[in-house]
Amino acid sequence: MASVSELLSIYQTTADLVEAEDALDQIAAMEHPSDLELGECYEGLAEVASEEEDFPLAVRAQRRALEHGCRLPELGREMLGWYLLKAGEREEGESVFAALCQERPDAPELLATLGAARSDSADWEGALGAFEEALELAKKTGDEPLVGRLRAERQECRLELGLPPDDEDRLAELRGHPFPEPTSYAVAWYPRHQIQAALARWPDLAGDVEDPDAYCKVIEVRLREVRAATGRAPSVAPLRVEAFLAFASERGLDPSTGGARSSFAAFLGSRDETVPWPPGRNDPCWCSSGRKYKRCCG
Fold first, then answer.
1. Which pLDDT value is given to residue 60?
2. Cα(first)–Cα(last) distance of the chain, in Å?
3. What is the CA angle 266-268-272, rounded to 5?
4. pLDDT for res 125
5. pLDDT by residue (tens digit) across 110-127?
6. What are the two backbone dihedrals, phi and then psi, of residue 104, each rounded to the nearest 5 degrees?
7. 180 pLDDT exceeds 60?
């Protein structure tokens, strides 16, 4: 019988995804080091299987990832729902998303991911419903970049369904699609060295940002949600408090709102003043922790 290290080497080097899956399954059935993050290994396998469009394997691997412990379990469940829909397991995939939406009823990004998963499966009517619901939530948050993207996604669904243009379609055409380039969407983030300055200005942020590691993991989830929903890699927009305040003042925005932060992030993205994401797994993490990405937010 092969050892854990031999099986791990097979998983890391083989180009045969089924062989990689078998190696991980054998490791899972054996005594293995406690620091071997099997959940992360299975999640990586699921992502590669998805890229190869082997969605049944992606579903199996993602289930195992959740069993063994994902670094970001909420996102792990989203990805399972996505893979299930892509694999044609519509009833279970919809059930996964329904449970997530019940837990997070005010999350337009989650509905955007559901809409994208449905449109990828050519369920245009279902996708339209998800995008419309997400759009109404995004309008309430004042997140203009997200509103623009959802209008464009909604318009595409309506075109596929042969529906006539309405007011939202006209707004989408007037403003144009907000994602002309793969990395043009940027997610706002207060860097570690800016957190105290942000808290001094906006104490209500304490619950979100005072634990830098937890805060960065939340941003990582957001980045992955954007990539899942758009098929494009976003970037990270560092919010430096003084520059952000100047931007908001010039445009008459309330800097305490999420909409203002998103607008500044989009502005930084248009000027290429953002941090590329994701880094390589062995590269320094985007969050400036000093740790490798795979041992930090990745």
1. 95
2. 32
3. 115
4. 93
5. 898 899 889 888 899 999
6. -130, 70
7. no
Please give the Cα distance from 97 to 99 (Å, whole number).
Answer: 5
Backbone dihedral angles phi then psi of residue 70, each to the nearest 5 degrees: -80, 150
Across 181-201, average pLDDT: 81
Chain mean pLDDT for the chain: 85
For the chain, the farthest-separated pair of C-alpha atoms sits apart, in whole angstroms, at 68
In this prediction the pTM is 0.64
Alpha-carbon torsion (140, 146, 151, 154), positive or negative: negative
Q: Residue 74 region, left (φ>0) first, then alpha (ψ -120 to 50), else beta?
A: alpha
Please state, in angstroms and as integers, the Cα–Cα distance from residue 148 to each residue in 176, 191, 196, 205, 263, following that order.
Answer: 8, 26, 32, 26, 11
* Other CB atoms within 10 Å distance of the CB of residue 112: 26
**The dihedral sign for the CA sequence 145, 146, 150, 153:** positive
